[in-house]
Amino acid sequence: MTNFKRNFEFDDNIMARVSENIRKYRKIAGITQEQLAVDVGKSYDFIRRIEYKK
């Protein structure tokens, strides 16, 4: 078994796009950040930080 650490570096633009998509599809679903946080088992603050990453 090979053990090595991979380097996952993402362009800031990709992170902004992910953030925009989370916000977009959450709004389409008609749920709040608090509701999404409960659904995915994360804190409200986590969702808030992800959505506003620019």
Q: What features would you highlight for this structure?
A:
single chain, 54 residues, mainly alpha, 0% strand, extended
Concise synopsis of the structure shown:
The protein has helices at 12-29, 33-40, 44-51.
How confident overall, as mean pLDDT? 89
Secondary-structure content class: mainly alpha
Instruction: Give a short account of the largest sheet.
Output: none
Instruction: Describe the global form.
Output: extended
Strand content: under 5%
Q: How many distinct helices? A: 3
- Summed up, the domain count is 1
The succession of helices and strands, N to C, reads HHH
The strand count comes to 0
Helix fraction by DSSP (H/I, runs of at least 4): 55-70%
- What Rg, in angstroms, do the CA atoms define? 14 Å
Uncertain residue segments:
none
End-to-end distance, in Å? Answer: 38 Å
